[in-house]
Amino acid sequence: RNERAFAGLGMDARLRLGATQAATLYTFLRRPLHAFLTTALPDAKMSTPVQDGKSPNALTKRVTHVVLDLDGTLIDTERIVEEVSKILLSRYGKQWDGRGLEKRLGKQLLEVATALVQDYGLPCMPEEFLEASKPLLEERWSHTERLPGASRLIKHFHDHGIPLALASNSPKKNILSKLKYQPDWAKAFTAIIGGDEVKEGKPSPEIFIEAAKKLNAEPQSCLVLEDSPPGVEAGKAAGMQVVAVPSLPNKTARPLYSSADCILSSLLELRPELWGLPPFKDWICNALPIDPWYVGGPVVKGFGRGSKVLGIPTANLPTVAFSNILCHQVCGIYLGWAGLSTKGVFKMVMSVGWNPYFNNLEKTVEPWLLHDFSDDFYGEELRLIVVGYIRPEANFKSLDALVERIHEDGHIAKAALDVLPYSAYQTDPYLTTPLPHDLMSLTQ
């Protein structure tokens, strides 16, 4: 009935709507009735998704200032720490296996060194291990990568005049060394406080209380963004509102973040308006434009559940084809373009993550090409350009609910990919350029 209503608008009305608004309205009208009745009509140009996880449904406490952690919240330094730890452990004949992350995350450097020495039974003092690590870390900070949504967040708050502070357990010297490679960030912070500038680091609230003083703000007027349990604990103890973006992704770690006011899977999910801050206005047709990323490889057999269980055929790629890219991507639902060597270019929507309903044992990419194919195409070259983010990964109470949401994601992708900036990538040469031979020889 809704689709017939759309068709009955008439050409003049559709022209007044414009392509973007018409596509969004059509997508909205095709949603299931219960979703239609319980969801506000989206803005055709700027719309935001429902925020999943532990989050307020309405504004509870208005904040005016924001305090950010650095390591694990804005930049991925754990990868650098792991690399250096492997080097140092090898000097003692030990092999790195990642144990004890929960004891190191968010702690000061000496505490991290102490945990590593104890966990691996190293024949040295923590201070000795720490001193050996400093030059190795320093020469690698230039390779640190920004976490998804970090630059967008900082620019948004800075452009709207929201006072920002950076409060990290790292020594001030290390913080400045890391920020040297993020030149567009430094000017955004009114205050920067290091762990060596307070008597006690996190989980003590001292560093956040000091940040509030330097911002000339009351603690209850500050919003903290943190990735570690000690940081969450410190922010709450300081009397601040706290949003957790956990660096400990496993389910068993979830209780460690239970004191946070809100738990997100990435910074892309943050809705500042829930805290009385200016909202983002960069969502276009129910999706967030992102810097494109490119993956490709031969189509392989997947879990066998796409067509058989869900009724939605997915074109799976071997994980080894994009493992380096995959580890840096936020779990969630994305949209983009898919190129098949013998069939052409098609719209696609895909999941990135663990698929909690099926409880995957590894992080995967499962693209759904939005086209009806008459036959399988295993072994064919598949090239993907991912250009937009739709929503975070989620679990569902039933298979029907999962299937319904996947189809809704498909409708969103179809409409959005007709609109700039997403539509511009349809003619990207990558989609029609043959993949390297070594990539096509990969298997699952």
Give a written overview of the molecule:
This protein has 444 residues and is α/β, with parallel strands linked by helices. The chain is 33% helix and 17% strand. It contains 16 helices and 13 strands. It has helices at residues 2-7, 11-29, 33-38, 78-91, 101-104, 109-119, 126-138, 150-159, 172-179, 183-186, 206-215, 229-237, 306-310, 323-326, 399-416, 437-440; strands at residues 65-68, 75-76, 145-146, 164-167, 189-193, 222-226, 241-244, 262-263, 288-298, 332-340, 344-353, 364-369, 381-392. A six-stranded parallel β-sheet has the order 5-4-1-6-7-8, with helices on both faces. A five-stranded antiparallel β-sheet has the order 9-13-10-11-12, covered by helices on one side. A two-stranded antiparallel ribbon has the order 2-3. It is globular and about 65 Å long. The relative contact order is 0.12. The model is unreliable at 1-53 and 305-309 (pLDDT under 50).
SSE inventory with pairings:
Elements: H1 2-7, H2 11-29, H3 33-38, E1 65-68, E2 75-76, H4 78-91, H5 101-104, H6 109-119, H7 126-138, E3 145-146, H8 150-159, E4 164-167, H9 172-179, H10 183-186, E5 189-193, H11 206-215, E6 222-226, H12 229-237, E7 241-244, E8 262-263, E9 288-298, H13 306-310, H14 323-326, E10 332-340, E11 344-353, E12 364-369, E13 381-392, H15 399-416, H16 437-440
Helix pairs in contact: 2-15, 4-7, 6-7
